[in-house]
Structures are given as C-alpha cells and as structure tokens.
C-alpha cells in the first residue's frame, strides 16, 4: 500500500522534515551516568533514524540536576560538558536526513526523592502526586525565575550541539504542566491565579529561548489536550492554551494527555483502542495555524495515513511502535506492513523502566541493547551449515530468524499444524488481538529470511537426524504444572479452556493461579460465568504493569467475579474446591462447577536424553524448554542463544 500523505515532506517552522513520521520523546535510561549521550544512546536513536523517522525527539532531558531528575541514566543539558556527545548524537541522526529535537523536562512532584538525593520534590504548589506519594514543596517566586533560566540554558546547549530544535515538556503532569493546570497550581503570586498567571512560567521559558537562540530556532510544546482529572485541564482549556502558545510564536504543538494521577491515559495499555483520543488533536488543529503533532496509540501505517487524510494532525507520533520495530517507517514506505512488529500495548517497556533498568520490549529483544546486539554485530559465519529448531512458538521462531540472519540453513520443526505455539492461546482473551498480528508478522519474517518450516512434524531424534542438522535449538515450550493434590484429575488447564472452540457458560468457575494467564483467562471467562481467582501470594498479576493488573481485576469484579489472595488449593472435589489460608492453614470450601489450573508451566523437553547423547553441547535449550516465562522471556532467550551460537 502506498502512503502518500505519510511520506510527504513537511515543515516545522523553517525546518523541512522528509516525512510526517515523528518518534516522540520516551524515557530510555540509556544515557551515561554523567547525563551524556554515550554510544548506547546514540546507536538507539541512530537506528530509529535509519528506520525511517522524519523527526526524533529525545527522551525527557534534564535541565536541573538538583530537583529535576526523572529517571536513572537520563540525558542532560545542564552544562556545556554535554555538548561534545550531544553533537555526536545529532550527527548520527542527521546522517539519515532525520531531524532531532531535545525535549526539555523537569518532573516536578512526579519524581521520588530517592532520584534527587533525598531532597524534597518541588512543584508549582504543595499538591502531592498520588502515584509518587511524596509531599512536594512549592517553588518560591525566585526559584521559579531561576528555573526559567535553566530551561533556557538547556535550549542553548542543545542549539550549540547542532540539535535542530527543542521541545518544552508541558504535558503529563510534569513541572511545566503543574503550572498550567489548576489541579496543581494553587499559587497566589505572578505564576498562579488567572489563566495568564498559570501560563507565565512557560511564557518566560519560550521568550527566553527566543532571546538566546534566535527567533527562527524551532520550539515545540508538548501539551495536554486534557488532564482527565477533576479541576484539571479540560479540552476547552487545552484549545485556549494552544492558541495562546501559537501567539507566542512557537513552531508546533505536540498534543498528548493525562498525568500520573489520571492513570493509564498517558501510556495506553492494550485495552485502549487505536486512535481513542484523536479528538484532542483534531480540535486543537482546527484552532491553530501552526503544525500539530499527536500521539494516538497508532499501531498501523494505514491508521497514521488516515489521520493525515482526515486533517486531524500534520505529523503523526509513532512512539512505542518505534520501540517494537525501529524500521517502522522504512517498512511502511516499502509497503511491507506485515513485517512491522506492532506494539502489543503490554506495558513491559514501562515496567522495566520503573524497575530502574534501561528500556526493553516484549517484541524487540534488541531494544536498549542495540550497541551490543544490533544486526551489524551478528557474526555471519553460518555459511549454509544446517541447524534445526524444535518448536514454532515465539522462542523457536526468534531463534530460527536470528540463525537465518547469520547465514545458517535453518529448518524449523513444529508438531502442530500452525506456528505460534501458546501465543495463539494468549491472543484469545479480550484486547489481546495484537498477539495474532505478531504471530503473522513472525511467519512473514521467517519466510522472507528463507527459514524452512515443517508443520505437523514430531521432532524426535530420527526426525532431527533426517534434517542433517549440526545443532539443535529446543524450543518445545512447557507443560502446565499439575499439583499432586486429591482430585486434581477433575481439573482442566487454562490452555485447555482457551483452546476450546466454545467456552463454558453459566458456571461457577474457580481459577487456581492469579498470574498473567490466570487473570486473563478469568477476564475471558467472566463474561458468561461467575469466576473466582485463587492466588497463593499476597498479590496478583506477577510482573504485569500495575495499570494492566488493575484493569483485569476491575473487569473480573465488574462481571461479578472475585479474587482471593493468600489462598492455596488443597483438594478438588465434585462441585467444589477446598482452599487453605497460606499463613494459617485454615480451610474453606468454594462451589466449583469447573476448576481451571493456571499455575504456570514446567519445561517440556521431548526426547531430551537421546538428543543430548547425540548432540551434546550442540543441543541448546531456549524459551520455556529452558526456563518458563512470558513472550518477552521467550524472544530474548531465542534471540540471545542464537546470537552467540
């Protein structure tokens, strides 16, 4: 498909962009501990430039070292020592005719004291962010004036580094947003009170940048079309602010929404529809004449094209799409949409960042590790040597793809009649359809890479020997854990239920296990059944991002279900289960027409001993066959072990 609008050049101020694809700012924690743009960050952004983005906006970039730290290993523009490496970042991006802005940022009350040396967070007023839970202090008038100078200094440093423009982060409930929003601005000095007072902080920043960087240096403002909070910025406020900012002479507006306190509206999990907030951008675009960029949970190039065709935006922000696939733009331009690994909305990237680690992605095992694992680092010594992969789930497909890139003649053996493994079952619960698209993309990538796929083949020693393979990657998946308790034969597994053409209805169902599989299966079944989830631990959801766990729990309970924590299964009976308090051992009985086990899996290793004897250390375990986990773990395992073989 041809995307004429998406790949038409466009202007932001006096700056021409080669297309309408913008990679907006996303925290990546890939900077050096000094705040400089080191080799890892430069490679990360250069790969997205090479992949087709017209404009890249850096991650939240620190303007204040005292109270403005937003993430560990955050990019900084607080002093001129940053110029050398920042200039190298600009050069790396410019090599692909891509432009780059630095996003100037201060978190305000949305940062914990542990990131700022134990100091108290600051804000427009002493309003506490409910997510961070730490009381901030209001900046004095003199401190606000000093903070203006820090933003301006950051812009000057960016300009001296050869950066094409700056973006003021005035959205998402961070410091500038805290001044703009009546939800957080309770000030009575010149920086509060009226609309003009709330706008004064950003006004002084913009005018300062213009004074020091010149009137033609592009300034973008990322702003909220709505806070989605009572007493916060409304859609009407957003339009008024956009018009005011346009009058100040900024170059473009980048529309987003939400704050930490409004939950999932900033970064949408999978249960938000593609394009759900397009009205915020389109209404602002109708009110201003300068270009409008907007993020809108875009997954597909066709949707981005339609946003442009409908006149909703001038430039389309593709955020997590560039994390899942750095070549999003290049593949779209070539009409190879099927080859784009499209963001699942699983929130794993933000869970990882919240743990203080560099960025990672379920679907892209190279993300955050481009410097070490980029394709140019592949040792292409396969020279046609034969390697067999057992299992066509995510781990097996990724291993086969990586081996093929290295030049191995790769054959993938799958016992079922289709690829995908348990990912096909994971796609069945509500809002999980993007997993089906992921499987289709992997199939297309395997075909393009020349991997031979044999379906319906039981991969025993004889079948493997028949391929002539010198090595075997075993990615046979896992088998459900079945506890040795009375009556367990009367239970079924979550995999059994998800694999049924017709799910059960009008039954009392008890699901044992409140991890990812248990909660998603419970949501799926709760639409037509009364479901109770029993979890032995004191929390459910495993490593799922909190907003995803909250949504699943709400959906289960909204449909009349229940979640019992701190309980373990002790017996399955006819029409009931016995559960015990994990601490006291006190037992209770629950009615159960159907008992579903979602207690995890253990490695499946078919014909393991014979294969080990035949292949020795050239039998390599990946995915659940090695260590059970989620799709993230499977892809990373398959990729990394094939990378180093």
What this model shows, in words?
The protein is an alpha/beta fold and 645 residues long. The protein has three domains: 355 residues, TIM Barrel (Alpha-Beta Barrel); 144 residues, NAD(P)-binding Rossmann-like Domain (Rossmann fold, 3-Layer(aba) Sandwich), CATH 3.40.50.720; 112 residues, FAD/NAD(P)-binding domain, CATH 3.50.50.60. It has 21 helices and 27 strands. Helix 6 crosses helix 7 and helix 13 runs parallel beside helix 15. The longest helix is centred in the N-terminal third of the chain and has 20 residues.
N-to-C terminal Cα separation, in Å?
38 Å
The CATH superfamily of the largest domain bears the name Aldolase class I
Q: Residue share in helices? A: 25-40%
Percentage of β-strand residues:
15-25%
Distinct helical segment count: 21
Form type: globular
Q: Low-confidence segments, ≥5 residues, pLDDT <50?
A: none
CATH topology title of the largest domain: TIM Barrel
Structural class by secondary-structure content: alpha/beta
CATH class bucket of the largest domain: Alpha Beta
Helices and strands in order:
Elements: E1 10-12, E2 15-17, E3 21-23, H1 39-50, E4 55-62, H2 83-94, E5 99-105, E6 122-123, E7 137-138, H3 141-160, E8 165-170, H4 175-180, H5 195-213, E9 219-224, H6 235-247, E10 252-256, H7 278-287, E11 292-295, H8 301-309, E12 315-317, H9 320-324, H10 328-333, H11 348-354, H12 370-373, E13 386-390, H13 394-405, E14 409-414, H14 423-426, H15 433-449, E15 452-455, H16 461-467, E16 471-474, E17 478-480, E18 492-493, H17 494-498, E19 508-512, H18 516-526, E20 530-535, H19 546-558, E21 562-565, E22 567-573, E23 576-581, E24 587-591, E25 594-597, E26 601-603, H20 608-615, E27 619-621, H21 631-644
Parallel strand pairs: 3-4, 3-12, 4-5, 5-8, 6-7, 8-9, 9-10, 10-11, 11-12, 13-14, 13-16, 14-15, 16-27, 18-25, 19-20, 19-25, 20-21
Antiparallel strand pairs: 1-2, 17-26, 22-23, 23-24
Helix pairs in contact: 1-2, 3-5, 6-7, 13-15, 13-21, 18-19
